[in-house]
Amino acid sequence: MDKVKVGVIGVGGMGSGHATTMKSVEEVELTAVCDIEKGVAEQVAAEHQVKCFVDSRALIDSGLADAVIVATPHYFHPPIGVYAMKKGLHVLSEKPVAVTVAAADQMNKTAQQTGVIYTVMYQNRSVPLYRAVKKLIDEGRLGELYRTSFIDPHYRSQAYYDSATWRATWRGEGGGVLLNQAPHGIDIFTWLAGLPVRVLAETRTRCHKIEVEDEASARLEYANGAIGYYHTSVNEHPGGSYMELCGEEGKIVIADGKPKFYTLETPIQQFTEENDQMWASPSVHEEEVAVEETESGHKMIIRNFARAIIYNEPLLAPGVEGLVSVEFMNALVLSGKKNKPVEIPVDREEYEEFIEEMRKSSKEKKLTGPTQRVTDPYHLT
Description:
By secondary structure, the protein is α/β, with parallel strands linked by helices. 33% of the residues lie in helices and 22% in strands.
């Protein structure tokens, strides 16, 4: 096999962007598209001259694809992904891989049982800056982390939420900013800093007329005793994320995509115990972060997915690791709604009961205008 035949399921939004992106990825060939809106499926299929379907299982069973990209609303990622895996197709899931940890568990279990290649569209893992920082951490350059902080604001207008009935509802989306805008940042944050073991969150709906949260903050506790802080919202503009990872031997600060790396001549604990000068502090050196420019973005994740299938290339964003961000998101949602600390791993049964209650309370959403299914113009590459 020198090309992977790929079908895209869900082409009203990001899926149509992925279909276009594949034109510049030599290792893949778009062979089919699917969408529950027949007109949308037909339009995208005509644009790319491929066959269209309105039933995802029909596409999977057609024999036209070796793999699928699942770009539907969140709740449908697991049932479509699991069905495809059981039919022997490789799966690339849009984020998040699932709304609940239990559903993400099922994706992981099926991938392991079937042996298919399973990845998640966490394209920020391909960004050279984050790969360089990950390398520094893996090499132990920061030492043991004792504090983390991540501020990750976004912005969405009311018109965005009014564009579709499923958006910002418990029944259709399963959460707000944490499930939709924040997953990419959460993935990078937990990839670099690790997953906390306990969170105490506050979530609220401050600026929008929606069911779910548009803002979330949390205090984080890690297994080694480290503490952290996290905040996200869709209520700020301009945006721009800010991350700090503080360790015994150094600190990394990433602000608006620009890194600063500080190393200590003497580790914090050692200096604190051994120094005899009242106003002394460890000597600090700022080092350049060696960033190797490489291809990144959606294109790189799709290429890597295909090369994992063809050449057994290691995955940049393994689908099984998609569970980590779902643990984080579910913990914050549950903590914020129940106003209590939540342990990680999240109690599967408790979260399933919680999300079912929220879905039952979800009100039918009526649009004042037509449904709009437009690919995010800021995240196409």
